[in-house]
Amino acid sequence: MLVAPARRGRARRTARDWIADILIFLLASVVTLALSMMLWTDPAVPPPVALADQVVGALACAALWLRRRWPAGLALALVPFGTFSLVVAAAVCVAVFTVVVYRPFRIAGPVVALHLLTTLPYTVLRPDPDLSFWGGLLVSALLFAVLVAWGLFARARRQLVLSLRERVERAEVEAALREERARSAERERIAREMHDVLAHRISLLSLYAGGIEYRPDAPPEQIHRAAATIRAGAHQALEDLREVIGVLRGGAAEAEPERPQPTLADVRGLVEECREAGMRITLTMPGWPGEPPGGLGRNAYRIVQEGLTNARKHAPEAPVGVCLSGGAGEGLTVEVRNALSAGPPARAVRSVAVHVGDAPASGNGLGRAGLPGSGTGLIGLAERVGLAGGRLEHGPFGGDFRLLVWLPWPA
């Protein structure tokens, strides 16, 4: 379909279009002027007929400026003049060529056929002294065949250029969409990482703060140590939040955060940090000779982190069992289990209070509110495991709540 170029031409001519139109107008005018001079020197043509033919030729050349806007209309308007006028021949050739270039064959074909039929009366009214009747018809038919072939070639080339241009534009749009999708996926990954980190840190801070409020009579050095831990954790949480906001607000040129990513070896430190907060954790983790490839270690760390965070929120006094097993070729299995707790949320702080005060606790504090949960941790965890090609199971299992994940570990 070549309707789009015509619409573009109606909208606005480019510099190239103006140059082409000027050259075509000048060429048609020169040919028309030469044919007019031939008429004035032909004694068989009366002067009034030559004058009328010259006026028709001049008007036809001026009408060529409308060929881009109304190619088929201009060609049809010149059909009657082609039956008797010699001077209008240049404008007719340009109009026929234009309609073949800008209009499909179902429109250009009938227009060319009408102009071809005008050669019959023209050959009768103005026979060529050097050619016979059939010879004149043959020359006219060959001329129109050349115009149609040239127009079809120009049309095909124009369609090819438009197709290549559309492909380039489509490729640019697709590249922009791919870039946007990649940027969105990266931002989602960063947000997922920050959810894991902040949820873990803030839940620990809440437990420490609740423990201090629950046991204001604890020794000063223990309160000081807990307060220092809260301050350091809050500072780190703010740094994490500031970093992720900067990345999410940045454009495509923003670099990926340069924070050191956790590895499988950092799981022991994570467990120790939670034990210091008062959690009772049993860790079963063999020593592997090296760090797993890719992001396997980071994913395992985040899984354990989310499992401990959920256990701290929903079953604060229940012991937690963390087991990592497997190896290269058989995959890595991560299991986090804790007993289902039916106690009140106030008990969430008691273990921290005992840890801070090193004595049995009594009374109530702000810990009654418990630790809020967003409900999105397991959803993000399922997405992380799915992207890694693993499997995730979670739910009650034998009186416990079990989080079981298997991650592929290439041999």
Q: How much helicity do the residues have?
A: 55-70%
* Shape designation: rod-shaped
Specify the number of helices. Answer: 13
Q: Can you give the mean pLDDT?
A: 75
Named CATH topology of the largest domain: Heat Shock Protein 90
Number of domains: 2
Strand neighbour order, sheet with most strands: 1-2-3-5-4
Strand content: 5-15%
Give the beta-strand count.
5
CATH architecture classification name of the largest domain: 2-Layer Sandwich
Ends apart, CA distance between termini: 56 Å
Structural class: alpha+beta
Stretches where pLDDT is under 50 for at least 5 consecutive residues are 1-9, 251-257, 343-371
GO molecular function, one term: phosphorelay sensor kinase activity
InterPro entries: HATPase_C_sf (IPR036890), Sensor_HK_TwoCompSys (IPR050482), Sig_transdc_His_kin_sub3_dim/P (IPR011712)
Catalytic activity: ATP + protein L-histidine = ADP + protein N-phospho-L-histidine
Coiled coil: 161-188
Task: Explain this structure.
With 411 residues, this protein is of the alpha+beta class. A hairpin with a 3-residue loop joins strand 2 (320-327) and strand 3 (331-339). Mean pLDDT is 75; it is low at 1-9, 251-257 and 343-371. A 5-stranded mixed sheet has the order 1-2-3-5-4. The chain is 62% helix and 9% strand. It folds into 2 domains: 3-126, no CATH class; 183-407, Heat Shock Protein 90 (2-Layer Sandwich), CATH 3.30.565.10. It starts with a helix and ends with a strand. Helix 2 packs antiparallel against helix 3, helix 8 (133-214) packs across helix 11 (296-314) and helix 8 (133-214) packs across helix 12 (350-357). The protein is built from 13 helices and 5 strands.
